[in-house]
Amino acid sequence: MIKIPTRVLLVDDEKDFVEMLSLRLQDAGEKVTPAYSGKECLDTLKQIPIDVVILDIKMPGMDGIETLREIKKRFPLVEVIMLTGHGSTETAVEGMKLGAFDYLMKPAEFDDLTAKLQAARKRKDEQEERIRKAEATLLVRKAGGIA
Ligand SMILES: [Mg+2]
Predict the structure, then answer these.
(1) 113 C-alpha vs ligand 1 centroid, how far in Å?
(2) For residue 14, how far is its CA from the centre of ligand 1 (angstroms)?
(3) Fewest CB atoms within 10 Å of the CB: 9, 64, 68, 98?
(4) Which domains are seen in the chain, by residue range?
C-alpha cells in the first residue's frame, strides 16, 4: 500500500530539535514544515494545508496554549499534538480540553510520536469524510431527492 504522507507542522522554539525531528519524520515518509513560534505557526496554517500540528507548549512570546486556542478557533479540523515538559501535566489537560488531540512528554519517544501522529491523522480523515457525507446529503435534499 502506498503511504500518503501526513502534512505535519512542527512548532518549537528549539531550532536543533525542530531540525532533528523534521529529518526523522521525513525519513518516515511524512511531509514536514517547520515553524519556530506561535505566530509563524498561524501564518503557515493560513498559507498551506496541514493535517497535524506538533506544538511545543513552552515558547517565548505567544505560548503553546495561546497558539492552540487560535488554531482551534481558525482551523478547527487541524489536529494538534502538544509537546510538554516535565511537570506540565496540568497544561496538557488544559490543552486537551481546548481541543488538542493528545500530548507527549518531552523528550518523546519517536515511536510514541509517530503512533499519535497516525491516530491524529486518522481522526482528521474520518471527520472530513463525515463532513463530505453530510454535504452530499444536503445536496440531495436541496435537489428534492430523498435523503
Ligand atoms: Mg520550548
Answers:
(1) 17
(2) 6
(3) 98
(4) 7-142 (3.40.50.2300)
